[in-house]
Design a protein that fits this description.
The complex is a heterodimer of chains A (366) and B (80). Chain A is of the alpha/beta class. Chain A contains 15 helices and eleven strands. The longest helix of chain B is centred in the C-terminal third of the chain and has 24 residues. The chains are: A alpha/beta (366), B alpha+beta (80).
Chain lengths: 366, 80
């Protein structure tokens, strides 16, 4: 698919977008929901080029590390600093999020406890099998792309009665926060780039309410620069023709109904709950927890953790506003001054998909 | 976090574990989320799990669209 990165292809698509933009509201505000899209847009310098072409790209709440409230990170820190013989496994980005108690990486675990970074949730199971005398907690974070893999992992633990394994979940669903954004009174978003890999799991239907009830166009989008531009062209055409839909331009990966097997295992293991999102507040039905029959594998139940999550940031950090597309990262007073990738003050500067890190890393291309 | 890598399936065992080839490296992968997958298929891999099969026909159509489009733009440029 190299052609989707070809300079002439990109140039052609851009000039086409520019021509169409003349007859459209200026600038057109489009939200890229997914953090991986944020990275692609910055890496290839599209942010600046699209700005010139009359399209203002705003980052959305699509970075799970960023939207996870500090209190959940702090619960993970408590587990390894207050208990002996614990192994906390998690994805790398999660270990660097600053909280009022430091980050998972900077805290000192209690005797016999440690943090292990995993690439796949499944690795936590072999860690649990190899360490039968230790409690292994997988601090699992993710959207619909990752949740089915975590569901398979827990199911395997249940089936094999792996009693020293449990899940501390920070699992988030993408359609509910989009509903919050389009229903907010000061919403300015005129189009959505829907996340390609979340859609590979859930399909097109969960986004249909956006064009149907709010007349906002959008397109499910792949991860090459050409994919982004094809979707933006589609959104422009939808506006011109007054025909908002959920277009799917990532058909090589996303089927209309998504991946039914993946959805089935999610529904088998988890149930919905109301969850606090950083910046967005409490969103009904936007999070997942293990069903009661699997409660022995739920760290919150097993270790009697009572997480009182809030949606606020650490003092001065405006990650919450960035996640809603209210301000660009550069408008935060900490950005690139006190808050840098080496010394992040908020999660948007920690995650490789955080809008602040992307803006910082590629700031010469903005 | 939602990064997915296109890779070719090398082997799938009965327990749905197997290997993919990514740029010449064999990587352990779980295929539990795909109902029908066999060596030679292309898949999207995320966090050690194959989450979707790549549809070759659809990929070709996207490329076809791009090719037509580029030719069209080039012709326009020549006409000017």
């Amino acid at each position: 698919m190299r052609e989707l990165r070809n300079k002439n292809v990109i140039r052609g698509l851009l000039s086409d977008i520019e021509k169409r933009a003349v007859s459209l509201p200026h600038p057109l505000k489009i939200m890229e929901v997914c953090g991986t899209h944020t990275m692609v847009i910055h890496r290839y310098g599209l942010k600046k080029m699209l700005g010139r072409a009359g399209i203002n790209m705003l980052s959305g709440p699509g970075c799970p590390v960023c939207i996870t409230p500090n209190e959940i990170h702090e619960a993970a820190i408590d587990l390894i600093t207050e208990n002996e013989n614990f192994i906390l496994t998690t994805f790398g980005d999660m270990t660097r999020v600053p909280t009022s108690r430091g980050s998972i990486q900077t805290t000192v675990p209690k005797k016999g406890s440690q943090v292990k970074i995993v690439y796949s949730p499944f690795e936590s199971l072999s860690i649990a099998q190899k360490n039968p005398k230790k409690d292994v907690v997988f601090f699992g974070v993710g959207f619909e792309t990752t949740i089915p893999s975590i569901a398979v992992t827990v199911k395997y633990a249940v089936r094999n009665n792996l009693k020293n394994f449990s899940l501390l979940s920070a699992l988030w669903l993408i359609p509910p926060p989009l509903k919050t954004i389009v229903e907010s009174k000061d919403n300015q978003i005129q189009g959505f780039l829907y996340p390609g890999h979340v859609s590979a799991i859930i399909g097109e239907n969960p986004f249909q309410f956006i064009p149907e009830q709010h007349s906002i166009p959008g397109a499910i989008t792949g991860f090459e620069p050409g994919d982004i531009l094809i979707s933006l062209s589609s959104i422009q055409n939808q506006i011109i023709n007054s025909d908002p839909v959920v277009d799917n331009t990532y058909t090589r990966v996303v089927r209309p109904g998504g991946n039914p097997a993946a959805v089935a295992i999610m529904e088998e293991m988890f149930q919905k709950k109301d969850s606090q999102w950083r910046g967005l507040g409490l969103i009904p039905g936007s999070g997942l927890k293990l069903k009661p029959e699997y409660k022995d594998f739920d760290s919150e139940y097993k270790y009697k953790i009572n997480i009182q999550a809030h949606s606020h940031d650490l003092p001065g950090c405006r990650c919450g506003d960035v996640l809603q597309g209210k301000i660009p990262p550069a408008d935060c007073p900490l950005f690139a001054k006190r808050c840098t990738p080496e010394s992040p003050k908020g999660p948007c500067m920690v995650s490789y998909e955080g809008a602040c890190l992307a803006s910082f890393k590629y700031r010469d291309r903005i | 976090m939602c990064l997915g890598i296109p890779a070719k399936v090398i082997s799938v065992e009965e327990n749905k574990q197997g290997k993919i080839d990514y740029l010449g490296t064999r990587v352990k992968t779980n295929f539990a989320l795909l109902e029908d997958v066999k060596p030679g298929d292309w898949v999207i891999v995320h966090a050690g799990f194959a989450i979707s099969k790549l549809n070759e026909q659809e990929a070709k159509e996207t490329l076809e669209l791009i090719r037509e489009y580029t030719e069209f733009s080039e012709n326009l440029r020549e006409e000017r």
